[in-house]
Design a protein that fits this description.
- By secondary structure, the protein is an alpha/beta fold.
- The strands form four sheets. The protein has a six-stranded antiparallel β-sheet with strand order 4-3-6-1-2-5, with helices on one face.
- The relative contact order is 0.12.
- A hairpin with a 2-residue loop joins β12 and β13.
- The chain is globular and about 65 Å long.
- It has three domains: 125 residues, Translation factors (Elongation Factor Tu (Ef-tu), domain 3, Beta Barrel); 132 residues, Nucleotide-binding domain of ferredoxin-NADP reductase (FNR) module (Rossmann fold, 3-Layer(aba) Sandwich); 97 residues, Beta-grasp domain (Ubiquitin-like (UB roll)), CATH 3.10.20.30.
- The structure holds FE2/S2 (inorganic) cluster (FES).
- FE2/S2 (inorganic) cluster binds next to loops.
């Protein structure tokens, strides 16, 4: 669900990135409760066209308990994260939300955010969502991140180390240069605050430095050698991979080669190229089928036009259908396939357990059977 939120601050982070802070009015705080690692979607009209972008929340989940309040998400808030539920004591929700935005070449929203957006402006912001979540719990955790992929992991580290004294975190980050590294100081502060429980390893692909790893890209071969030298790989309870597709794919490959079970690896991809339009993206049915939907407790049944995705069919009839990237990356359009069969063009958002449980990305799903039924509430 979208609400209008006022921009409290736009702060430069590097030459090509900023943080945007939003004020959350008291009456909406419960709706904007988030789990560490979740994101928000921002909606804006540009030249008469609606654009949506997802950005991860970077601050630790605030400890802001209301005496006697139960730690459950709001009915109008995010769909629940998959793990153990909201952080105890955080049920009131944040008074501010902060995201990091890096300038993308020709990026319709990032250009606006860096060059025009000012404190006091108002934007449409969706309640937090996403399953790239680390609930505070005892254990050893690690992340491999690249570029702006640090953003959700920053929230995870800050939350888990503050709330769970028996947790440790190893962060391996890859950036181009020190000057282009987002949240450089905030990560250094975490290191100062928890020197024993937070291990930081930085790799710069285009710059040599006195400390840290030698320059160069972190590819799969390098990670296979590097990771066991940094930490006991098999003792890590959960891995979080976030950043460009190339780095996340390399880290996943390396962890697989090192024998890490896939169930311990969580990933979130940033920056995936657009899917070319045309026959390759078209579905195997030529239209005439039916898409049945449950969305926010209401049902609907509509004809699908040839080649369109399940999300497109739904959006023609229900403008409140959830989506952001339409590219198979953010997972906002996740729905459960109740009956029928679909073919997904691509999936960078759902974990294998989710697809095995019948979840699909509506934006990437094309009906294969004449009738397809999906449930966005499941
Ligand atoms: S809208 Fe982002 S994965 Fe479908």
């Amino acid at each position: 669900m979208f609400h209008q939120l006022r921009v409290a601050e736009v702060c430069p982070l590097t030459d090509d990135s900023v943080t945007i802070s939003f004020e959350v009015p008291d009456e909406l705080r419960a709706a904007y409760w988030y789990a560490p690692g979740q994101h928000i979607t921002i909606r804006r009209q540009v030249g008469g066209v609606e654009i949506r972008r997802t950005y991860s929340l970077c601050d630790p989940v605030p400890a802001d308990p209301i005496p006697g309040a139960s730690a459950t998400g709001s009915a109008s808030g995010p769909r629940p994260a998959p793990a153990s539920g909201p952080v105890p004591g955080a049920s009131r929700g944040p008074a501010r939300l902060r995201v990091g935005v890096r300038l993308v070449e020709d990026g319709a929203f990032s250009t606006y955010a860096l060059k025009e957006l000012l404190a006091g402006d108002v934007l449409d912001v969706m309640t937090p969502a996403g399953r790239f979540v680390l609930e505070p719990r005892p254990g050893r955790f690690a992340a491999v991140v690249g570029g702006s992929g640090i953003t959700p992991v920053l929230a995870q580290i800050g939350t888990v180390l503050a709330r769970e004294p028996a947790a440790g975190f190893c962060l391996i980050r890859s950036d181009r240069t020190a000057a282009s590294t987002m949240f450089l100081e905030e990560v250094a502060d975490l290191k100062d605050r928890w020197p024993d429980r937070f291990q930081l390893v930085s790799a710069l692909s285009r710059e040599d430095r006195r400390s840290g790893l030698p320059s160069g890209r972190l590819d799969a071969d390098r990670l296979v050698t590097l990771l066991p030298a940094l930490l006991p790989v098999s003792a890590v309870d959960a891995w979080f991979l976030c950043g460009p597709l190339g780095l996340v794919g390399a880290a996943e490959h390396a962890l697989n080669a090192l024998g890490v079970p896939r169930s311990r690896v969580h990933q979130e991809i940033f920056h995936v190229d657009e899917v070319p339009a045309g026959p390759a993206a078209a579905g195997p049915t030529s239209g005439g089928g039916t898409v049945r939907v449950t969305l926010d407790g209401r049902g609907g049944s509509w004809p699908s036009a040839g080649g369109e995705s399940v999300l497109e069919t739904v959006l023609r009839n229900r403008s409140d259908a959830p989506y952001a990237c339409k590219g198979g990356v953010c997972g906002t359009c996740r729905a459960k396939l109740v009956s029928g069969e679909v073919r997904m063009d691509r999936n960078f958002a759902l974990e294998p357990e989710e697809t095995e449980a019948g979840y699909v990305l509506a934006c990437q799903s094309h009906p294969v059977t004449p009738v397809v039924e999906v449930d966005f509430d499941a």
